[in-house]
């Protein structure tokens, strides 16, 4: 599709962003990461950019920011923000220009925050480097924390990044992006790690900011429902090129390109009954053998400031009890800070519960091991070690004899539908979906009684996400795997889970069979979650 078709819809508006014929290569790659990309965005408009990993959408965002790495080069085209040619600025000039003119919200807030500084100090510093006085920066920081719905802003300001939940961290990063009142904000997967209610609140805030100040938003995401709801227009990218563009609602309701259709068909649907989506594998009858029993589980965290420990002030879990039977998939859902991740880490033995808590793992005479698969496989796989080394080390720690490890590692890759040749590859040579499959294989290597998956698909493209979910359903059928699935995505929950446990502010408020939870919610908070998720569902295809 030609660039002219994309720009026709911008006629008559004031362009805040113009990308014209942009082509970007990475060193060592013969194919461009971005090829002849052209679009413009009016002042106050929200443009969504969607596509799978490797489509070039994040590279386009980095080019706008002047953040392309040293191994990338712009081979052709121009990038202009507010009339400024970004590539023409020196590195120092770009640093001075950013903040007041353009800001970025990243997918992973931990990469954008200094672990050795309190979050309040970091947000204030982002303003002082642009000439705001320390006193004004402190006051504005507190106001921003309130505006992005952070509870107890003064207390949050005094915490370090590791002391906050993922949702709280992302709201801090959004506050930092807003701090210097930029004309353009690039949001690269900004709500991937957030629950549906927090996601809705954040994006409503962004919409409000856009209306009040005329800020231009580039929303880069693989969440098609989110883009359909909040973007004015959409550019669909595939292998570095824009294959389709248009008004968000009409494009998603009646797409012209087969690739756009494929993305829409792969998206899990909250409103779709389970029987209409789940393969036969998920109809497996579970037994009554309990592999996990947790009762009276509480976790209290102390608040630390200035090296002095105060009395415990935050109860992350409060008298939680649940069980998991063999061959079952139990989803644990709740908003950011609800305690769902804390619960999973207590069960995995990563956090110490309070003294009266009781946790029993494993059916009689069987494994008592718990394995865990985290949200970001990149941070849990050694970048300097091959996949084979990683799997065989795990097998060694699990007591598998040296002579059997290679064969077992090959079998593990086969179990997760990867070729055995991947044993010789490094993590960087794999896609995001493939790295997550390796993480699942490593978890299987421990022969666990319970496998815990903490937001395992939230960072994956919709088509890759579906294949990962189908893999888990297949493993459950073939191996009788018992899974505790922590997520905020109710579409994924309805696709994969047998039962759902809903948490709110450290308490377990309900546990119910999946279909009953969605059709007969028995708690106002559950209904709120469902309604928030339904609001971001895709419109029906007019011509599927």
From TrEMBL:
GO terms assigned for molecular function: ATP binding; ATP hydrolysis activity
> Where is the major localization of this protein?
membrane
Question: The ABC transporter domain covers which part of the protein?
Answer: 19-264, 292-530
Where does the protein end up?
Cell inner membrane
- What is the similarity comment for this entry? Belongs to the ABC transporter superfamily.
How is this protein positioned relative to the membrane? Peripheral membrane protein
Look up and give the organism this protein is from. Martelella alba
InterPro entries reported for this sequence: AAA+_ATPase, ABC_Ni/Peptide_Import, ABC_transporter-like_ATP-bd, ABC_transporter-like_CS, Oligopep_ABC_C, P-loop_NTPase
Which UniProt keywords are present, listed alphabetically?
ATP-binding, Cell membrane, Membrane, Nucleotide-binding, Transport
Matching entries from Pfam families are given as: ABC_tran (PF00005), oligo_HPY (PF08352)
Tell me if Cell division is a UniProt keyword of this record: no
KW Membrane (keyword) present: yes
Q: What is this protein called?
A: ABC transporter ATP-binding protein
Q: What is the lineage of its organism?
A: Bacteria, Pseudomonadati, Pseudomonadota, Alphaproteobacteria, Hyphomicrobiales
Provide GO CC annotations from the record: plasma membrane
User: Which BP terms in the Gene Ontology apply to this protein?
Assistant: peptide transport
